[in-house]
Amino acid sequence: MKKTSKEKNLNVPGTELNSANAGRGKRESPSNFVELLPPEVTFKIFSQLDVQSLCRASRTCLSWNRTIRSSDSLWKPHCLTLRAVCQREIDDDIESGYTWREILLRNYQKSRVKHEWLSGRYSNIRSPISLPERAMCPMDADTWGEILDAELEREAEKSQ
């Protein structure tokens, strides 16, 4: 059974991946490569972009936005990169039937925050007031458990 998700804006600075209106009001160029090249070539070009660049490209014009949003396999390599930090979350979303794009939307910000926690960036923070609000996002109990385990291991290494 596929879950449905409310789409949220992906927190990639300077981008609006979910904007259905991205590109609306911009005129299509007669030299638009998306319309001129075969779909395989267009896909190859877009597949070379990182997440931020892909999001920005989707805002260029309506045809680019449609192509990027409808090419789910463009998002797969980015999701697999996130999986290094959010394996459980990504695997659960795959099992639940989410598209690669939806998986990226659901896990991008969490993977960034979780990576910073696991790498010890916030190890010296002693109260919630000290947390950088803009860098935080909601996380489930299992994720907090992973972070706590990493912190406890870090403390054990320091005391040895």
Q: Your description of this structure?
A:
With 160 residues, this protein is mainly α. The protein is 53% helix and 0% strand. Helix 3 crosses helix 4 and helix 5 runs parallel beside helix 7. The protein is elongated, with a radius of gyration of 19 Å. The relative contact order is 0.12.
Task: List the topology elements.
Blueprint: H1 33-36, H2 39-47, H3 51-58, H4 62-70, H5 76-82, H6 87-96, H7 100-118, H8 141-159
Helix pairs in contact: 3-4, 5-7
Order of helices and strands: HHHHHHHH
Low-confidence stretches: 4-11, 19-25
**Rounded Rg:** 19 Å
**Portion in strands:** under 5%
Number of E-state strands? 0
Number of helical segments?
Answer: 8
Alpha-beta content class: mainly alpha
Separation of the first and last Cα atoms: 49 Å
Q: Helix fraction?
A: 40-55%
Instruction: Please state the overall shape, judged from the principal axes of the Cα atoms.
Output: elongated
Overall mean pLDDT stands at 80
In short:
The protein is mostly helical and 160 residues long.
Q: Which terms summarize this structure?
A:
elongated, mainly alpha
